[in-house]
Amino acid sequence: MGQKRKWANIPTGYDSPLNYAISARDRSVIDMVDQAVRHKQVMLAYQAVVPTGHESRPAFYEGLIRVMDETGRVIPACDFINEIETMETGRVIDCLALEKGLRTLQDYPDLRLSVNMSARSIGYPRWNRILKRGLGKDPTIAERLILEITESSAMLVPDLVVGFMDDLQKKGISFALDDFGAGFTSFRYLKDFYFDILKIDGQFIRGIATNPDNQVLTAALKSIAEQFDMVTIAESVEHPQDAAYLSAIGIECMQGYYFGAPTIHPPWLDAALGQESA
What sequence ranges are listed for the domain EAL (predicted)? Predict the structure, then answer.
């Protein structure tokens, strides 16, 4: 009887208070992101990707989408991207990220920038219009733009991704296979994808200096990248000993909190402000 009273306020269709709480949380996140997108309360946070051995000069920056809730709090994509991935909101987020990334490239001609996208946005008309318009504004933008597609997203429609990449690589755009090792890539597609960059998922990188399993797995992923002529980037590098180990085994670039957290105040903005006040 007590258990029945305890569950009395749980709506039909939910088998436990926990499942109901998780569903309610997801709906709350989706509503928050919908509101932010509707009012364009989004921005990019920038994180450096540094070449191994030359960490003081970033190879490029990754533009990571952020949304602001009604209180002005900045919410990172990892808090909502899975909930909206299959929704229209996910496509709009991709559009806004691309729009802001292209504008940044236009404003800062010495910058190289990567922007995340889902394979689901490949056929989204608005996304393609934004890309075409952005590339038309500056002939150098294509060669400075990197599009990042996660491994799990790429495998949803591999044949579509192959054709899409081939078309845009001819225009000078580069592609990064993000979170490699976290998904379920069919290896027969790797030889067809022709990604320029392979980003090794952070679960294999954290603590790698003292973790033999991660050492073996990262070496295998690095070998795959070398076979298919892809630049390797280690994600989630957080400690100096891990950075030193990755450098020793020949990882070409690194990204993570050890080199700097994502920031909405990147160094080129400070430089521009300094020039204005001089």
Answer: 26-276
